[in-house]
Design goal:
Elements: H1 13-26, H2 28-39, H3 50-74, H4 80-89, H5 91-123, H6 131-147, H7 150-180, E1 193-194, H8 206-219, H9 228-231, H10 240-268, E2 281-282, H11 296-305, H12 311-344, H13 362-378, H14 383-387, H15 392-415, H16 419-450, H17 455-483, H18 488-491, E3 497-503, H19 509-520, E4 525-532, H20 535-548, E5 554-558, H21 565-578, E6 582-592, H22 604-613, E7 619-627
Parallel strand pairs: 3-4, 3-6, 4-5, 6-7
Antiparallel strand pairs: 1-2
Helix pairs in contact: 1-7, 1-10, 1-12, 2-8, 2-10, 3-8, 3-10, 3-15, 3-16, 4-5, 4-15, 5-6, 5-12, 5-13, 5-15, 5-17, 6-12, 6-13, 7-10, 7-11, 7-12, 8-16, 11-12, 12-13, 15-16
């Protein structure tokens, strides 16, 4: 796609919702389950806390959505929390948010895919042994779809997301109707007892409070990905801010309804699920060590729709697994966008800001897939293990961005005189201030309850990333300062003389072409240079040189240790010391080949020598190519590779080679 086609990739609200909100929408599939897993450490005695914990999560979701709607309107250029914090609290605080979000985007992919695989295994237990390979395959699939472009990935993911929303709402409505008619659904695990963990059956006082807080922290996974819409405002169609704010409101409302409905039905159906596996369920049939527990969604679907062999059961499992896997798409859009902004600000390598052939940030997409795949491999795609590394970064960015928004409104109010605008700003400041207090409390809770269970790894990763980004910025700033022009006349002055050196190994066509090119440059002096690695071959070269009557003198360097690079470097550097005002141009004949394996057979010595010469001041390295037959097969590549048109390599017969060149304006 051409650069000017970027406007055609902008998203309407119906596609933006599944692209940017699939993570918070799909997290309702496991948020209730994570609450129950924590509360069942003391058996079934503490399940009465579930409604209160869920109510806290719902209230928090409402606060965060309202707060981020203010961010969308105030900063419609994208960047979300990173831009808000950088502008209002400083660059270092902005980097804290950026590092936290990048880590959390990686965790979003890992947790979403692992949870999706769990739901597949709930329907097809025979696949349990292939958990890791399934997860890695889905990550590769997501990467491939996203490399096709934002709009294409939105079209691919829209149907599953809307099917999931419809399926969950159908399940919730059907379940509640059955309750109203006196036929409440009963989960398959309702008859199982729950063995408390050692010493956890008599929790009281402060211990009970910590247990409730830990369950609340786990349930807050329902809020992951909420900030993605604020990061992706530039991807919306105009009016961008209004469309993004409306999409966020729809996302928040839908997520709250689904989460509350699933939690209510889980309590009504008496779903029992434990963190320690099926062996903590008394009365569990079969081998508890090898048989996986069904997820909360699977148990509810079976209870409401007539068993785990009904059509609607499989339909719910299919769309849940699919949307959980596709929920990682939120990260595949948020991570590259944020990485591109950081690269533009010189905190990440510049390649992260480069758009690929389909106008997507390809390098960021690939980097996210590689890191998330590594985590899935390391943690065996286990949701319970991965979840402890999750959501810490989200609430770090939530808290700092809301504090930044309070400062933003303070600055706006200091200069604003219009009464209507001031009232709006005051209302927004109250919303953001309340959001800052609430999310700060949740951040403390998450740190206290999850730090020792693995969240410290996320903290360390964010710290390392923060230090790395600062180091990259220092490097880019140093390079910019070093390359800045101080004295244009002195720095553009021509060298007093140019001495040309043509490197020679044999007297053949590439050597003669290099000699001809070197003479065409008209250096003040020119010589050919060879290294005597084998005396017999060097003697034969000198004989051929004399017989051919080559005008350029041949100089032979002795190499008793059979090295090529060191003698050449020593000779060039010595010449530079003797004539510091004289530039040296080194001409290197090189083969151009067409097959990948031929690269391994040619030019290795030249490549190494060239890389060393580049570090020598006052030396210019000039490659003189000689195209072998394989490099010109059929006039170019036999098929269109990705980016062929952009690189000027259209496939023969494709019609692209006949297109007129675009007129420059």
């Amino acid at each position: 796609m051409r650069s000017e086609e970027l406007g055609e990739t902008l998203l309407p609200k119906r596609l933006a919702l599944p692209i940017f909100a699939s993570d918070p929408l799909s997290s309702v599939a496991y948020a209730t389950q994570e609450i129950l897993l924590v509360l069942t450490v003391g058996g079934a005695a503490f399940l009465y806390l579930t409604p209160w914990v869920a109510a806290g999560v719902v209230a928090l979701m409402a606060v965060v959505v309202m707060s981020y709607r203010q961010v969308v309107h105030a900063y419609p250029s994208g960047g979300g929390s990173y831009e808000v914090v950088s502008r209002n609290l400083g660059a270092n605080s902005g980097l804290v948010v950026a590092a936290s979000l990048l880590v959390d985007y990686v965790m979003t992919v890992a947790v979403s895919v692992a949870s999706g695989v769990d739901n597949i295994i709930s329907a097809l237990p025979s696949l349990a042994g292939h958990r890791v390979w399934l997860a890695l395959g889905f990550v590769l699939l997501l990467m491939a779809v996203n490399l096709r472009g934002v709009r294409e990935s939105g079209k691919a993911f829209a149907a599953p997301t809307y099917l999931f929303i419809g399926g969950i709402l159908l399940m919730v409505v059907t379940g509640l109707v059955r309750v109203a008619l006196g036929d409440a659904p009963v989960a398959s695990s309702a008859s199982y007892g729950i063995l408390p963990e050692d010493g956890k059956d008599t929790v009281a006082g402060l211990g009970l409070l910590m247990l409730g807080l830990r369950a609340f922290a786990s349930g807050c996974t329902a809020l992951t990905g909420v900030e993605a819409i604020s990061n992706g405002v530039p991807a919306f169609r105009a009016p961008k801010a209004r469309n993004a704010a409306r999409t966020m409101a729809v996302m928040g409302t839908t997520a709250v309804v689904m989460f509350a409905g699933i939690t209510a039905l889980a309590l009504i159906a008496k779903v029992h699920i434990t963190e320690g596996g099926a062996c903590r369920l008394t009365g569990f049939p079969g081998d508890c060590a090898s048989t996986p527990q069904q997820t909360v969604i699977a148990q509810l679907a079976a209870a409401i729709f007539g068993g785990d062999h009904s059509v609607l059961f499989y339909a719910i499992q299919a769309v849940t697994a699919l949307v959980l896997i596709l929920a990682a798409n939120t990260a595949f859009n948020g991570f590259p966008l944020l990485a591109s902004i950081l690269a533009e600000h010189r905190y990440l390598p510049r390649q992260m800001h480069t758009r690929g052939d389909r106008l997507a940030f390809s390098n960021g997409i690939i980097a996210l897939a590689v890191v998330a795949g590594g985590l899935l491999w390391l943690y065996d795609a286990n949701v319970t293990s991965l979840i402890h590394l999750y959501i810490l970064g989200v609430f770090t960015s939530f808290t700092l961005s809301q504090i930044g928004m309070v400062r933003h409104w303070n600055r706006a109010l200091a200069t604003e005189t219009d009464p209507a605008v001031r009232r709006s700003a005051l209302r927004s400041r109250v919303i953001n201030a309340f959001g800052a207090v609430v999310t700060a409390l949740v951040l403390v809770i998450v740190l206290l309850t999850k730090f020792t269970q693995g969240a410290w790894l996320a903290v360390v990763a964010a710290l390392v990333l923060w230090l790395m980004m600062r180091g990259i910025r220092r490097h880019y700033d140093g390079v910019a300062a070093e390359l800045a022009v101080d004295d244009p006349e002195a720095e553009s002055a021509r060298p007093a003389r140019v001495h040309g050196i043509v490197l020679v190994s044999k007297l053949h066509k590439p050597t003669l072409r290099a000699l001809g090119y070197a003479e065409a440059f008209r250096p003040d002096s020119l010589e050919a240079l060879t290294v005597a690695v084998e005396p017999e071959a060097t003697g034969e070269l000198e004989r051929q040189w004399t017989e051919a009557g080559v005008r350029v003198p041949l100089k032979v360097l002795d190499s008793p240790y059979r090295e090529i690079t060191k003698p050449v470097l020593a000779y060039v550097r010595e010449h530079r010391r003797d004539s510091p005002r004289e530039a040296v141009a080194v001409f290197i004949p090189e083969y151009v080949v067409g097959r990948w394996w031929e690269h391994l057979l040619h030019n290795q010595s030249a490549l190494w020598l060239k890389s060393r010469l580049l570090f020598t001041a006052g030396v210019m390295v000039i490659s003189v190519p000689w195209q072998l037959t394989s490099s010109g097969r059929a006039g170019g590549p036999s098929r269109r590779a990705p980016g062929a048109v952009r690189r000027g390599e259209p496939a023969p017969g494709s019609g692209y080679e006949r297109l007129p060149a675009p007129e420059k304006v």
